[in-house]
UniProtKB/TrEMBL annotation:
Residues 175-394 form the CobQ/CobB/MinD/ParA nucleotide binding domain. Residues 93-108 have a biased composition (Low complexity). One of its GO terms (biological process) is negative regulation of cell division. It comes from the Bacteria. This is CobQ/CobB/MinD/ParA nucleotide binding domain-containing protein. It comes from Microbacterium aerolatum. GO terms for molecular function: ATP binding; ATP hydrolysis activity.
Length: 423
């Protein structure tokens, strides 16, 4: 509880700078360095003052970070002050000035007189959203004590990435995940990219195993209510495109991922490639079905870059994602793919120029190789991202929640880069 005799300190905050006025009236300039929040420095300065004098003090702050009224205890504890009239900081009183003889004098009935002109009306619509405040960990406790803490740069970048991934576009978008070499992380990339878009942007995201040669997307994702594959969907395609088809009819042919909220269209890894080839016309028909039911499609491609379904995937994609490992062989395969696309046609060349390359660290302790390979693609594509080693990516079911926070943030950056290309 404060009293009239409780010492008061004031601070006026402007950007990274503040003026601290101690209870004795002495003004002291304060500045923040680096990423440090100027408000933290002000509170520390007030805390030092309270400890030095051995008495609690009121801290009243104003400026471009808002107004706050705190009680700083003699032991350094901080709490929000009870609601009360805030006494302005001491200031010099300007001397009275003589009226300007040239200024017009308002007549009593003059509608322009100050007393007859209403003040600017308060708008009930906020001019803009306030800067988000950090609301986790110790920052949340500080906010509850009356000290709202702004987001760190890392939190701000994460929120901006989520904003980009959450966008919905007019019309569908297709993402091709490709690299002619096997075992470089195409399935993992397809699942994680689909998961990020579905979790943050809402459902209607499909991961399509566009693979003639034992695609493993079905092995690394959860099975839905039906044991169906792309071969089962093909004969039902015309019915699914019919005027009486329901949005739920597609559920018989795809496998929903409950946690990550996207669907999987499986191939059958138990069949030989000769028994599950998809010809050009068949691919086009399946794509008509997919874009009717889904806003975003992520193709997990096979390794045969001459297959009709692979070429049609490229022809119908809006963004290319190329995963690779930090090894010369997989990186060279990725680079050769980019070369071939640049020479194929204008659309393919645009995909190559706008591509996102992902370099995944396969084992702990191999970050140097990852950075070296990533640097080699920097002048070939629009974005290069790296994924840290995470045991949850090596084998078993692919689930976003199973990843460490650093890995989750890395995939979020990847998806945000992809989303930028989809614009």
């Amino acid at each position: 509880m404060t009293t009239e005799t409780t010492p008061r300190a004031y601070a006026t905050v402007t950007g990274p700078n503040a003026t601290f006025i101690a209870p004795n009236g002495e003004a002291e300039p304060i500045s923040a360095a680096g990423d440090e929040d100027i408000r933290h420095i002000v509170v520390r300065r007030a805390t030092d003052e309270a400890r030095r004098t051995g008495t609690a003090l009121e801290l009243i702050t104003s400026g471009d970070r808002g107004e706050h009224h705190l009680i700083i205890g003699a032991t350094g504890d901080v709490a929000a002050a009870p609601t009360a009239d805030v006494i302005p900081p001491p200031a010099t009183t300007p001397e009275a000035t003589e009226p300007d003889p040239a200024a017009p004098t308002a007549e009593p009935n003059d509608v322009s007189a100050e007393q007859d002109v209403p003040a600017s009306r308060h708008s009930f619509i906020a001019p803009g959203a306030a800067a988000p405040k950090a609301n986790t960990g110790w920052r949340r406790l500080a906010a509850r004590a009356g000290i709202p803490i702004a987001e760190t740069k890392t939190q701000l970048r994460r929120r901006e990435a989520i904003g980009r991934v959450s966008r919905h576009w007019a019309g569908y978008r297709n993402i091709a995940v490709a690299n002619g070499k096997g075992g470089v992380g195409k399935t993992m990339t397809s699942a994680m990219v689909a998961a990020v878009f579905a979790r943050y942007g809402g459902g209607n995201v499909l991961a399509w195993d566009n693979n003639d040669t034992r695609g493993t997307l079905g092995w690394r994702t959860e099975q839905g209510l039906y044991d169906t594959t792309i071969r089962d969907l093909l004969p039902a395609a015309h019915d699914l495109l019919g005027a009486t088809a329901s949005v739920s009819d597609i559920s018989r042919f795809v496998h929903h991922q409950p946690d990550d909220r996207y669907d999987v269209l499986r191939s059958n890894p138990e069949l030989l490639a000769a028994h599950q080839r998809i010809e050009k016309d068949e691919f086009d028909l399946l794509l008509q079905v997919a874009v009717r039911y889904y806003r975003l499609i992520v193709f997990d491609s096979g390794n045969d870059e001459s297959a009709d379904r692979w070429l049609r995937m490229i022809d119908n994609s809006h963004q290319l994602v190329i995963p690779t490992l930090p090894s010369p062989e997989s990186a060279e395969s990725a680079s050769l793919l980019l070369d071939a696309l640049r020479q194929r046609d204008r659309h393919s060349a645009a995909l190559a120029a706008n591509a996102v390359v992902i370099v995944t660290t396969p084992e702990a302790g191999s970050r140097h190789d990852t950075k070296t390979i990533a640097a080699g693609f920097a002048d070939q594509v629009r974005v290069v991202e790296t994924i840290p080693f995470d045991a949850a990516l090596k084998s078993g079911a692919l689930r976003f929640d199973a990843l460490g926070r650093a890995t989750q943030d890395a995939w979020l950056r990847v998806a945000a880069a992809v989303a930028t290309g989809l614009d």
